[in-house]
Amino acid sequence: MTALLDVDQLRSFIAIAETGSFTKAAEVVNKTQSAVSMQMKRLEERLDRPVFARDGRASKLTEDGQRLLDYARRIVKLNVETIAAFSDAELSGRVRLGVPDDYADRYLPEIMARFSRAYPSVELSVLCEPSVDLLERIDANEIDLAIVTNCETKRASETFRRERLLWVTSARHSTHTEERLPLALGRPSCSWRRIAVEKLESVGRPYRVIYSSSSAGAVAAAVLAGLSVSVLPESGLRPGMRVLTAAEGFPELPTCRIGLVRNAHESSALAAALAEHIVSSLDNLSEAQAAE
């Protein structure tokens, strides 16, 4: 009889594929690096082929590893859904989620609806703050799970979505044509702000930051009022905004990775269940967007 794949090994495999590192993956799955390495050795032995190719310090997927990744994600997701469906013990208690308000309007309704239907006895506490603040709260054991923007940080996280960063302006105004470009951006610690400034300076475009806020709503209001241009992810676009292109003199921006960071101080069944619902909810949103 053909032996089955180990779901725990597949979890670690996914974490390595998404972080590019055995060390970072070990943080994500709460194991030692040696334990993760042993898991991958056994997984490769089971498949009778390598799934990772070393590239300096990074761990990249082989062609077979790329094939396995999609199967692994589906197997792990189905495993969690199956256990939840047949669990006799109803989960209860409170789980704390942090999410930047850049994504709250777009993501939270689907996440909260699915999670509440599955676990009606659980209290979901949501905190909306910038990613850098949420990471500090994770470290301080003040929240269980955080959705964070991970454009460049080396912090270990489980990437579940990638979006383009976009230059945006009001569809009813010509603010973007001003000689000294007015900008509405996040606080000085915001990575999107730094990226925007560096890109404008690289092409010699004069600018001035006239609005600075950690609130995505405040930044969006400045854009929609025709007072400024800003940088937002695809999911942050709102009716009345227009995307600016390279043809209009706006340099291309990098891709933004959105990921989950778990509280390493204490893991809980509630946090694990919420994490799975977040990924499932975002899968649903992606499928809906593709169908539109």
What does it look like?
- It contains nine helices and eleven strands.
- It is an alpha/beta fold.
- The chain has three domains: 7-85, Winged helix-like DNA-binding domain superfamily/Winged helix DNA-binding domain (Arc Repressor Mutant, subunit A, Orthogonal Bundle); 93-160 and 257-291, 3-Layer(aba) Sandwich (D-Maltodextrin-Binding Protein, domain 2); 163-255, Periplasmic binding protein-like II (D-Maltodextrin-Binding Protein, domain 2).
- Strand 7, helix 7 and strand 8 form a beta-alpha-beta unit.
- The longest helix has 23 residues, at 63-85.
Layout of helices and strands, plus pairs?
Elements: H1 7-19, H2 22-29, H3 33-47, E1 52-55, E2 58-61, H4 63-85, E3 93-99, H5 101-118, E4 122-128, H6 131-139, E5 145-149, E6 158-170, E7 181-185, H7 191-202, E8 207-212, H8 216-224, E9 230-233, E10 241-244, E11 255-262, H9 269-291
Parallel strand pairs: 3-4, 3-5, 7-8
Antiparallel strand pairs: 1-2, 5-11, 6-9, 6-10, 6-11
Helix pairs in contact: 1-2, 1-3, 1-4, 2-3, 5-9
Main features:
292 residues; alpha/beta; Arc Repressor Mutant, subunit A; D-Maltodextrin-Binding Protein, domain 2; 3 domains; two-stranded antiparallel sheet; 9 helices; globular; disordered C terminus
Describe the main β-sheet briefly.
7 strands, mixed
CATH class of the largest domain: Alpha Beta
Mean pLDDT rating:
84
CATH architecture identity of the largest domain: 3-Layer(aba) Sandwich
List the helices and strands in order: HHHEEHEHEHEEEHEHEEEH
| Class computed from helices, strands and strand pairing | alpha/beta
Distance between the termini: 44 Å
Gyration radius over CA: 21 Å
Number of DSSP E strands: 11
Tell me the CATH superfamily of the largest domain: Periplasmic binding protein-like II
Shape: globular
Q: Helix share of residues? A: 40-55%
Uncertain stretches: 284-292
Q: Report strand %.
A: 15-25%
CATH topology of the largest domain: D-Maltodextrin-Binding Protein, domain 2
Discrete helix count: 9
Structural domains: how many: 3
